[in-house]
Specification:
The chain is built from 2 helices and no strands. By secondary structure, the protein is mainly alpha-helical. The protein has one domain. Helix 1 runs antiparallel to helix 2.
């Protein structure tokens, strides 16, 4: 995986995770606490963590696949 592919994978994972976690925290607070608030800190933190982990796992899978074929 090149740097450009890793960066694109990070940004994609970050964006998807951020949007989903914002929606989940909004709906959670709306349903269970009857307040329409978003937990921005948790959403941003989770997006950064998964944005780093997902490309790392993809790169590890790519390396294993290359070693098995040789």
């Amino acid at each position: 995986m090149t740097f450009k592919e890793g960066l694109i994978s990070f940004l994609t994972g970050f964006a998807i995770t951020f949007i989903v976690s914002v929606l989940v925290t909004y709906l959670w607070s709306l349903c269970f606490h009857e307040m329409a608030t978003v937990d921005w800190e948790t959403s941003f933190r989770l997006a950064i963590i998964l944005g780093i982990i997902i490309p790392f796992i993809e790169a590890r899978k790519g390396n294993k696949g290359g070693k098995e074929e040789n």
